[in-house]
Amino acid sequence: MAGLEVLFTCVSDNIRSAHDAVVCFVHWEMIKSGYRCVGSGDTPSGSDKKSEMLPSDWSSNREIYSLRYQANDSNAQLLLKAMVVDSSLIFNLMNLSTQQVSDLTVNMSDHVNADQLHTFDSVYKDADSLTVKVRTQLLPPQETTTGRRTTRKSRRDEDEEQRRGREDSDPLRVPSRHHPHPHRPNPLVPPFAAGGADLDPFGSHGGGGMIVDPLRSGYPRSGFDPSSGIPDILPPGAVPPGARFDPFGPIGQRRPGPDPDHMPPPGYDDMFM
């Protein structure tokens, strides 16, 4: 509320009712929001001048208050009217350019001590609540400056995207040093390693082969050498040393008696055997 006390002291001689005190309060909120009072009444006059102070005749009409304002950074003209209705004051604020209107109703007993009109420290009650009401319900949104800044920022973003698009489509443009380096293969991998699994099916030179050798699959082995032969199954030398060998029966054990793989006995006609 800095500055309100100075304003209140300057116009204290004209404050003779709770309505006058509230109009003074709302006027100061207008000033803090970036507007200046240019005069009283509904129509402009040749003596209009921007000022933080209230015009000399601002409280000449005790039933209807009429004040005109102009924004500091634009030509926006606002007309503020306040009408006395019993113990309330109804504010109406109109933008003369857009014809947009906002309003606010203030109950005198909620925000003014009528018996303390000439004591600034005691005249206003719950001033913070009144400030919130004025800013949210009566004053126009603060978009004159922020809106333009937002527009300029979005245009800068669009220009930057267009510039990058033109650079990316230029085949003669030298890439920026900040661009990420292209992917390069690992120098430790042979450059002609493609197809190695076909040339080395068992993967004897490292890496995976294309054929799974059961003797090199990583599972536990019995430790036998198939080239030495399998009793009653393969004679020694039947499997060349180092050759791929797929076991086709229990290693080191003889088959037991007849099993489902043997021929049925003569004359046996059991089809489920």
TrEMBL record:
Its main location: cytoplasm. GO terms for cellular component: endoplasmic reticulum; proteasome complex. One of its GO terms (biological process) is proteasome-mediated ubiquitin-dependent protein catabolic process. Residues 175-184 have a biased composition (Basic residues). Residues 134-273 are annotated as: Disordered. It comes from the Eukaryota. Residues 181-250 form the PI31 proteasome regulator C-terminal domain. Residues 155-171 have a biased composition (Basic and acidic residues). Keywords: Acetylation, Cytoplasm, Endoplasmic reticulum, Methylation, Phosphoprotein, Proteasome. GO terms for molecular function: endopeptidase inhibitor activity; proteasome binding. It is found in: Cytoplasm; Endoplasmic reticulum. Residues 12-139 form the PI31 proteasome regulator N-terminal domain. PANTHER family: PROTEASOME INHIBITOR, PROTEASOME INHIBITOR PI31 SUBUNIT. Plays an important role in control of proteasome function. Inhibits the hydrolysis of protein and peptide substrates by the 20S proteasome. Also inhibits the activation of the proteasome by the proteasome regulatory proteins PA700 and PA28. Belongs to the proteasome inhibitor PI31 family. This is Proteasome inhibitor PI31 subunit.
